[in-house]
Amino acid sequence: MGQPDHKTARSRLEREFERVDRDALRGKWPRISERLKPHFDRVFDSGTQAYREVLVGCVLVRLLDKTIDVHSPYLSHGEDAYSGRSLDEKVVNPFLKDHNVPSSKGPFLSTFRRSVGFVESTREGLRDKAGFDSLLALIDYLAEEQDDDRLAGFLRYLLYRFWRLRNEAEIPLSRPQRLSLEQYDRLLTGLLDTPSGGRFPVLLVEATFRTLNDHFHLGWEIQSQGINVADGPSGLGGDITILEGELILLVAEITERRVDRNRIVTTFQTKILEHSIEDYLFFIKDAPVEDDAIEQARRYFSQGHEVNFIVIRDWIRMVLATIGKKGRDAFCRKLIETLDSPGVPSSLKEAWNNQIAHITSG
Question: Does the predicted model carry a pTM greater than 0.90?
Fold first, then answer.
């Protein structure tokens, strides 16, 4: 009798979900055969959550051991069967719960009569027969497919559908009563190290500017554009533009990529000159600024345009130290408000909750 190793199965799920999450934040979605997509739609539209959860176990079984019959989720079915209940309790359900995906409270096999297989006769007695038919069509596909790349593609598309399901669900955000400056330092490091498609750096810098504006009553207008939005169509010269009336005080470009001379030249020609920007600030994560980029910035300074560079974490930490406890509390509230707004991916909310739990548990 076969049974996939639970540790290996969980590791595969985590690795593929991390990839799906990273790609989805960049607007890249896994593809699936048009023949299979309607069946996925029907399974995920079904009120029977167990149907989609069954698929996770089936594709894992198929990827890890092709001698196992994915139609036979009870060991009593024969030599090529596996324990679907064990796989669910030890791998699938904990994975879904840990990632805040809406899922069944109990084992998915409890939806079916005991010892049934994933075969056509099982549909009798089930409430959503059409959903089960689609589930069975997808399991039949898995049972016949031998190519590991196509099976991996099936798993990634399945996890993407769970990712979408999670994004549609409400994830309550942790709201710490207070954090020390040392805890903020750890929080910044954790959030900036979280793959977010560039979102966390922008959210953190924007929240800091807005906190400074309110704390010191500066009267700024702070304009921010969306992630991966082209500067030209947005009418802005960078990720964040700070104005005082009609006057542009500062434009901030927030980047996780290396800054070289070519980028400085391109930024100057397409943004700084076009918008007559005198103060342009690159917020960098941790990638070094190349020497030729610094030298080019010095040349532009002599022409009346400042191009400067600052490390995001260092700048925010200095600001938080300067504005005191009251200001730090305001920064936390602004960050939570932004994360709690519509359109923010659930993975960012999950990352926030995980970081807060990590830094407050010790």
Answer: no
